[in-house]
Amino acid sequence: MHRLTRAGLVICACLGATAAHAVDEARIRAAVDDAIRPLMSRHDIPGMAVALTVDGRAYVFNFGVTAVQGRAPVTDTTLFEVGSVTKTLTATLAAYAASTGKLSMSDHPSRYLPELKGTAIDKATVLHLATYTAGGLPLQFPDTVAGDTATLAYFRHWRPTAAPGAVRSYSNPSLGLLGLVTAKALGQDFAQAMQTQLFPAFSMAHSHVRMPEAAMQDYAWGHRDGRQVRMQPGPLAEPTYGVRTTASDLLRFVQANLAPGSLAPAMRRAVEATQAGHFRSGLLVQGLGWEQYPYPVSREWLLGGNAEEMVMQAQPAQRLPGATAHGPRLFNKTGSTGGFGAYLAFVPSQRVGLVMLANRNYPIPARVEAAWSILQAVTEAAD
Q1: Are 328 and 320 within 8 A, CB to CB?
Q2: Domain-by-domain residue ranges, the chain?
Q3: pLDDT in tens, 306-350
Q4: What span, in angstroms and rounded, lies between the C-alpha atoms of 208 and 191?
Q5: CA dist 267 to 256, 257, 270, Å?
Q6: pTM of the model
Q7: DSSP string of 181-202?
Q8: Would you name the residues annotated as active-site residues?
Q9: What is the pLDDT averaged over residues 68-81?
Q10: 273-314 residue pLDDT tens
Q11: Rounded Cα distance, 33 and 89, in Å
Q12: Is the CATH number of domain 35-382 3.30.1490.20?
């Protein structure tokens, strides 16, 4: 009788946990549906994958199709271009190189690229490259730059518009050079370093810098101006916008950022380093890859930090003392290619994180609004 009673208690406990999980998932599904379905309709988005982590539990929701022409549904294995979300992974790889002693954030680029010795870009440090504060590097490379030789020539001849650390200018060349320096420090090709060192550390088994033929069947098409498109690589595309991945894989990366304690020591230190704030610029604090805000943060403040002028225009930068990493914060990053749009956000103090991937490049304010409503619904229900 005693054994039967104990078994019954165990069964009841399991059923109770299952029921609670079902309620949680239904509530979370409702929050996601309420935000995502109108968003897709309003912006004519063919397909999306949305993943959340709440108190350590993962939820993945798929919507629509991978291509308008093929009509195949988005699934857990669908690969999306994530655009500049790639920069958070590149910054983590750089922080990993630093945590293993192969790179220093105070180094200058020429330590790894002797061709840059004595140039203006060599007055900046690796940290300046990682935080867009090298001195006014532009958002994109000029159209005339193509190939490795021309890319290095561009950096050799570049002229700053400000001193290192004076302004934050969001920039593909800045993070691209960080990726190139990191690869040199690690003694590997950049794509190889990502595939063999970074992705495995986060169990990102379905993530790619260079697409293998076997994965092409899962690769969604982006959509732009009535056409199905995929990215066309440009200078240093791999470290700046080159990752293709699934919502589930990116959620594992977010979960590790929420709770890095389970990572190997060197990678744990790397993740913690990316979350330190180095420069305040306008409404945001710039870390390594991640942009951060004090939490709770208002909807208006988050929209302002992701406003067009923060991407398109140089903003004054204020160096923060030490590596600031105090108090509750919200971390986020947007990413876009010609046919795809992505957004990541997480709040460690709330143990909640969100991944939104779409096969259309739709407006960033719409991404922030949708994410805000989902996170608010989830955290308010938890409280």
Answers
A1: no
A2: 35-382
A3: 999 999 999 999 999 876 666 899 999 999 999 999 999 999 999
A4: 8
A5: 10, 11, 5
A6: 0.93
A7: HHHHHHTS-HHHHIIIIIHHHT
A8: 84, 170
A9: 97
A10: 999 999 999 999 999 999 999 999 999 999 999 999 999 999
A11: 28
A12: no
